Amino acid sequence: MNRIDQLLARDSFIERGARRRAQALLDPGSLRELAGPFARLHSPWLAMQGLVTQSDDGVVVAKGRLDGAPTVVLAIEGGFQGGSMGEIGAAKIAGSLELAAGDNRRGIPTQAVILFETGGVRLQEANLGLAGIAEIQAAIVDLRRYRPVIGVSAGTVGCYGGMSIAAGLCSYLVLTREARLGLNGPQVIEQEAGAAEFDARNRALIWGLTGGEQRVAAGLADACVQDDSAEVRATVARLFAQGLPARHRSERAAETLAALARADASQQPAPADARGIYQGDA
Amino acid sequence: MEKLAFTFPAGRPAAGRAVTGVVSSGDLEVLLEPGRDGSTTVAVQTSVDGYGGNWTALLERVLGPGELPAAHIEINDNGATPGVVRMRIEQAFEEAAS
Questions:
Q1: At the top level of CATH, which class does the domain A3-245 belong to?
Q2: Each residue's pLDDT tens digit, A148-160
Q3: Residue B96 forms part of a structural domain
Q4: Nearest Cβ partner of A54 from B1, B25, B29?
């Protein structure tokens, strides 16, 4: 097959919505959606502000099996309000992770995948969204004592804000080249520090420093995959099969901070330099 | 944001329920559940005000003949064009039937 045929034959993961992404990861016929659209868990806060709500608040909770193992997939719909985390959506994710941890304590080794497609907190829901993200983070740290929690960000929204911290707490993180991962988005950095610090219109700079390929090369994520549903699924399955990492990335924070302290911040680093910083040789 | 409500004649209740689309820019979410025999209700919330006439004309064209199964339809719209609205409604009927 030539490259065009390969491209056309590929089952894109990015082009799938949240619900169909969850279907792509779970064994056929095993998916059961919890707190789904017909439960009508709308955001009560968006309607008060004159905004159209979505009946699942932009989060799909899909319980099923992955290669036979009990698995819950928490898929964020990036198309709805930028995948932002409000009170309801965040509670659905946190609650599901807490139930999975409870399963493990009762001898059922439930594992979790979170599909991050989010700009972080939903500004319209302010503190309730932030509190929800904190609950998600606490629940990830609880569950990952038993089974890996795997984060996937495929794009095109990427993963930012408080949810990038949640992604950093995951046992493993899988990105595509199209995905971006960062605490602050490009426009936020430009607004706060100026275009000289970060030019939010420079796409090569944005993907060069915060894109999936760079984040994996820098050791801030574990796998960079093609935008291919089968490859995403196979990578997630392989990482679950590896079991828990000896030390989670967040448990290595002291080393990362020390490496950052040694870095020369007087110059804007090129992508290759930035990789070196995290490897501790800059 | 504007809320609109409609009732149309219909056939037998729909076989199942379905959800299609998402509330993203230029798209809409359609929730379809079986309705009462002979009657379809549509509840619309749309981000764009002042297009009641367009909604009436479009829904009249799709549901007015009363040939589709009876359903409760809920639409959450984020500025979809009439073509997209029609496609999502028909997709929901198709998925509810299978």
A1: alpha beta
A2: 999 999 989 999 9
A3: no
A4: B29
